[in-house]
Amino acid sequence: MPKQVDHHQRREEIARALWQVVEQRGVSHLSLREVAKEAGISHGALQHYFTSREAMLSFAMDLAYEQKSLRISRGLQELGDLPHPRDVLRLMLVEMLPLHADARAASRMSAAYVLEALHNEKIHAQARDGIAQGRLVVEQLVRQAIADGYISPDRDPVAETNLLLALTGFTTLIELDVVGPQDALTAVDQYLDRLFAGNDHGTGSEGGRSR
Amino acid sequence: MPKQVDHHQRREEIARALWQVVEQRGVSHLSLREVAKEAGISHGALQHYFTSREAMLSFAMDLAYEQKSLRISRGLQELGDLPHPRDVLRLMLVEMLPLHADARAASRMSAAYVLEALHNEKIHAQARDGIAQGRLVVEQLVRQAIADGYISPDRDPVAETNLLLALTGFTTLIELDVVGPQDALTAVDQYLDRLFAGNDHGTGSEGGRSR
User: Fold this and answer.
1) Total domain count, chain B
2) B54 contacts on A by Cβ (under 8 Å)
């Protein structure tokens, strides 16, 4: 049992070394050799934990998703017992953007992973399933918000969900300094204000809410 | 003079070989050696045209932007003399998504390039300038559409421009088969319908337009 824990812990350490390589040197440097160097272990020792670049990348991505879910869960706890659906969606959206160090690392990992997915069926399936699962959570939130009168019933829940996910396009704009983090947040807030406008429950984050 | 033309033409051929490598094998295979192989020339001959991976990538990206601009120009011509601003924005947005082979190749190139930009100041500056220039064109369109009464004056032109650009986030969703191309277009159209709703000129692509 302790040996298995050690094994898992060591895999996590290696995944973090992989993040470091992607974050600091870029995906073009991502190889078992570079990660072994960053983790301070031998290439042979690394292969004891991951037999391929693919397996390593896949585990690192799972870990990134896991950590993101954890940050969202913590954020949800802070929102209290009956959070406004606008606040829940905002929390999820903002966590997907590279606005703090952990989210930026995850978003760079994710970009590297998506590029890899285009040429690797297994990673493609893993990435698709992960994002589709997240998409479903957002769609359920949107449908519930429509049913509860927070969002106008005129809105198409599928299209609205897809648009919310597409807003992760801010990632590139922020990373390239085309749009500043504050401007991105302003745009996201205006977007959410309109999504939640013209309904029974008021117009969004400030005032007008009823529970 | 003919020699210079040849030189430029050969550089274009090499850039296309680079696209092929990125498109078919992925950015992790992007090296001078792989591109030389794809272009059917020797590594030494390639270095006559590009002295570094960075120079090659930078040229290939310029070429991709150029071709995208050309496709948009052609699309604009088809829209006639006084195109509706909604149609112009739709054309630009759709061309940014991987909905046909050329746009997909450009978008994969672009994704590889953005990842490279995170760890290369020169490429970062080039990518930022290219996207910022495109952003400015969109902002001018949005401001003009507000001035001409196509978009409500309540809308913030900066945030609206940023949101339009952020919708390129559909790229990942389409590439990973999380959102189908048709569903992405439906969402973009609903988005544009709302952006152009509630103004002097009617509600978007169908009917209600005045010139």
Assistant:
1) 2
2) none
Question: By the CB < 8 Å criterion, does B55 face chain A?
Answer: no
CB contact under 8 A, A187 and B128: no
Assigned token pair, A64: 């990134």
Tell me whether A151 touches chain B (CB under 8 Å): no
Q: Cβ(A30)–Cβ(A22) under 8 Å?
A: yes
Looking at the structure, tell me whether residues A68 and A106 fall in a common domain.
Answer: yes
Of the candidates A120, A24, A93, A22, the residue with the CA atom closest to the CA atom of residue A63 = A22
User: Does the ipTM exceed 0.90?
Assistant: no
Same domain, A38 and A75: no
- Match 């504050």 to its residue by tokens: A182
Q: Is residue A200 part of a domain?
A: no
- Which of chain B's residues have a Cβ under 8 Å away from the Cβ of A167? 163, 166-167, 169
CB B95 within 8 A of CB B60: no
User: Are B187 and A161 a contacting pair, CB within 8 Å?
Assistant: no
pLDDT tier at A14, thresholds 50, 70, 90: confident
Condensed to tens digits (0 to 9), the pLDDT of residues B143-196 reads 999 999 999 999 999 999 999 999 999 999 999 999 999 999 999 999 999 999
Q: Does B175 touch chain A (CB under 8 A)?
A: yes
Residues of chain B found within 8 Å of residue A124, distances taken between Cβ atoms: 176-177
- Same domain flag for A81 and A147: yes
Q: Which of A119, A162, A185, A193 to mutate to test the interface with B (most CBs of B within 10 A)?
A: A162
Both A85 and A160 in a single domain? Answer: yes
**Which of B59-63, B66-70, B122-126, B198-202 has the least mean pLDDT?**
B198-202
Tens-place pLDDT, residues B108-157: 888 888 888 888 898 899 999 999 999 999 999 999 999 999 999 999 99
State the residue range of the domain holding A3.
1-51
